[in-house]
Hints:
binds calcium ion; alpha/beta
Amino acid sequence: MAxxxxxxxxxxxxxxxxxxxxxxxxxxFQAFDGPSALALVEQQSPQLVILDWMLPGLDGLxxxxxxxxRHLMPIIxxxxxxxxxxxxxxxxxxxxxxxxxxxxxxELMARVRAILRRVSLDEQALGPIGGPLDATNATTPGAAExxxxxxxxxxxxxxxxRVDPTTHLATLDGAELDLTPKEFDLLLLFASxxxxxxxxxFLLEHLWGYDYDGFDRTVDTHITRLRxxxxxxxxxxxxxxxxxYRFTV
Length: 249
Ligand code: CA
């Protein structure tokens, strides 16, 4: 069961979604505009955000982008037009999934279940990813019970690449990669979230804990070295102009 934030200005729709989510045992927070959605994300650290594109004032696109500056939790966007899908899932916005309006509650609930299942797999590898970044590595109650007992659980495999967060070992075609701890952390984050773009600011805060003014080069330098160590696979770490980096599979 998860804490889920629903952002939609149409009250009836917002309540309907809430009703169905609560029926599945989730805790639901509601926001009817962008600024309160951003405030609730900070206060409640929901594990999932369902976000309507069309909001008064601050639109869903902007809200999504703002959330992504600091948070990794999955975001499902509700869009009215299928032409918006590329933008929603692309680097411009950074949502994880979308549902086109009008949609059935059954469809939305299926997406929610699929995303939450995926996140719980990610968390086995990475630790809780719903909360603010400074709490990402904090121990959470219940983490011990959900931690995999199988030593191979949580290992991320992307083609020839294998990243084991428990042993801090990364191998490519079975050969161990000689990575610094920061390079390993970068690779683990990328491999756990293929297709997602990370800004330099995000990477700095998340992996280095810096205030990011003036430190952009730090990330670039590490990426360059990591790419080199990955050989041909290094090309899968793609520079996203004006944004940062993304790992493709
Ligand atoms: Ca709306």
